[in-house]
Design goal:
Layout (H helix, E strand, L loop, with lengths): L2 E5 L3 E7 L2 H10 L9 E3 L13 E5 L1 H11 L3 E5 L1 E3 L2 H4 L1 H7 L2 E2 L4 E3 L4 E7 L5 E6 L8 H6 L1 H5 L3 E4 L5 H12 L6 E4 L8 H4 L6 E2 L3 H6 L10 E4 L6 E4 L4 E3 L12 H14 L4 H15 L12 H9 L1
Parallel strand pairs: 1-5, 1-11, 2-9, 3-10, 5-7, 6-8, 11-12, 12-13, 13-14
Antiparallel strand pairs: 2-4, 9-10, 14-15, 15-16
Helix pairs in contact: 2-10, 10-11, 11-12
Length: 311
């Protein structure tokens, strides 16, 4: 099978449904509070923002993308770290049940990472991330798992683990005679500049907010930019520039749609699909996923995506 590795975050999502008035109040009090569709990282969520969770789900951009890649038919390995509390939330069994190899995930003396997902009345989200165990992913861990990365067909990266070991990994991969195709999701965008300058990053997949935030840093990036734009056409800035329209669906919630896009993009590129076909498949998969609330709950299989496209 085609091999995909996701090196990134593993979280428990604390989902909170909030009114437009509540979200506006948070944004007025805290200049870091994310805009619609954006992700930010904080060390601790203020008490007056920490609403009671309506539900808890498994999440983390790295883990979500791994699950999506597995659903798209790739042999997928998750690399990252969870806390000693992971059993209480069933974090690793959820990955295994989804077809992801979680044998290499580290367990550290820290709480498992948390994402506070604020869902507005229209189903759009704002995400505040507390790194927890994700912050423990270091050079030693990455070096210990270098063989899995080097031998993969595609490597998925995000920005919810420390940047320094990821930058060093990209430098090492540049020196390899063969290496995986690297897809970087710059979420959250703050601090991703060192990664954009690395030659090994082949594809960058920002949403509109991330694209605007990285406008200056993009001058140093020489790869392909795939702009995810919600319900608007995806813009692919490659040698052959093209756009892909998402299909019309009845969306319940957009949480995790970008992760589904990246997972399917990686799996299809690993399988040898053309960039256009990989993007078209990923767009349909991401759109289908929004029909069900939750970052992973609505992820379709590759067969389901193909059937949808055929219709």
């Amino acid at each position: 099978m085609d091999r995909v590795v996701s090196l990134g975050s593993i979280n428990v999502d604390h989902v909170r449904r909030a009114s437009d008035a509540e979200l506006a109040s948070f944004a007025e009090r805290y200049d870091w509070f994310p805009a619609q569709g954006d992700t930010v990282r904080v060390e601790r969520l203020p008490d007056d923002v920490a609403l009671d969770a309506d539900e808890r789900r498994h999440g983390g951009k790295g883990a979500n993308q791994a699950v999506a890649a597995a659903a798209a038919g790739a042999a997928t390995t998750m690399l990252g770290a969870v806390g000693t509390d992971h059993d209480r939330f069933g974090v690793l069994p959820a990955l295994v049940d989804a077809g992801v190899d979680a044998e290499r995930v580290g367990v550290v003396d820290a709480p498992t990472g948390a994402a506070h997902v604020f869902v507005d009345p229209s189903g759009d989200n704002r995400i505040v991330v507390d790194p927890g165990a994700n912050a423990a992913v270091d050079d030693a861990y990455v070096d210990a798992n270098y063989d899995a990365v080097r031998d993969a067909d595609c490597l998925l990266l995000q920005n919810e683990i420390p940047v320094e070991p990821v930058a060093a990994l990209l430098d090492d991969l540049t020196a390899e005679p063969t290496r995986p195709t690297v897809i970087l999701d710059p979420a959250p965008p703050a601090g991703t500049d060192p990664l954009l300058a690395r030659e090994a990053v082949d594809y960058l997949t920002p949403n509109e907010g991330e694209y605007a935030a990285l406008a200056d840093a993009l001058d140093a990036y020489g790869g392909v930019v795939v702009r995810k734009r919600g319900g608007d056409p995806v813009i692919v800035a490659a040698d052959d520039r093209f756009t892909v329209d998402p299909p019309a669906v009845d969306a319940a919630e957009t949480t995790g749609a970008g992760d589904v896009f990246n997972g399917f993009l990686a799996a299809r590129l690993a399988a040898g699909a053309s960039l256009r076909d990989a993007v078209e498949t990923a767009v349909v998969a991401a759109s289908m996923a929004t029909r069900t609330a939750g970052a992973r709950e609505g992820i379709p299989t590759l067969d389901e995506v193909r059937a949808f496209r055929a219709e």
